[in-house]
Amino acid sequence: RSCSFTGFSTVQSRKLAKSLSRSSVRSRMSLKPPKAYNSLQKGALIWDPKPLQVKKIFEALKKGLNEYLEAHQAELDYLSGRHKDTKRNSRLSLFLSLSPLQKQIRSVERYIRKLEFHISKVEELYEAYCIQCRLRDGATNMRHAFSLSPATKASRESLVELYKNFQECTEDMCFIEGALEVHLGEFHVKMKGLVGFARLCPGDQYEVFVRLGRQKWRLKGKIETDDSQTWDEEEKIFIPNLHEKFEIKV
Predict the structure, then answer these.
(1) Band of residue 45 on the pLDDT scale cut at 50, 70, 90
(2) Does residue 69 share a domain with residue 156?
(3) Which terminus of the chain, N or C, has fewer Cβ atoms within 10 Å?
């Protein structure tokens, strides 16, 4: 692979390095300051992008949003069909103000537009993330190629410039990860009960500990004489985090 860089002049490498710098995502996107993002607040700035994790979460998020959009579109089609039947069967329809059915239709239409905007924003962020990821990989490959070539003043300057571009791409990727977190919504976790078959005995008491990054949830439960379960707390809301996974202990 290093052979493909042998015909690359120092001037060309500098031009490419500068183009990498100019394509910084923050020059093209208005991103909020780090304190707005869950994983970047409280000084816990993580300059370690997770492209595979981001891809997995993006695909899951887009799939969920599209399913939600399809469900609301089906509801709108059903309500629109009902409205047409109502207009066909009512002579007074032209003189009536907005009926409850029409208000419901408009409400669903507004929500569909909101979902479509949400999906487009998530796609825009992920596209920008992929661009920065490719630029970062390119800077890494070029640094490796220059490190194998004879050390000259020009090559050292190019290495410094490429390292700077690598750092900028890394920074941009982390900022986009934070921006994407804002669009993940919330996790609503509800305790339905433990399943342990013969190991769950009446009178037994349990403690369940759930953690997602800095967020923690500790709840206590008891197995009643009729084998039902009672818990001191049944529901908890977690804010999603791209860099953390759920940990559950019983």
Answers:
(1) low
(2) yes
(3) N
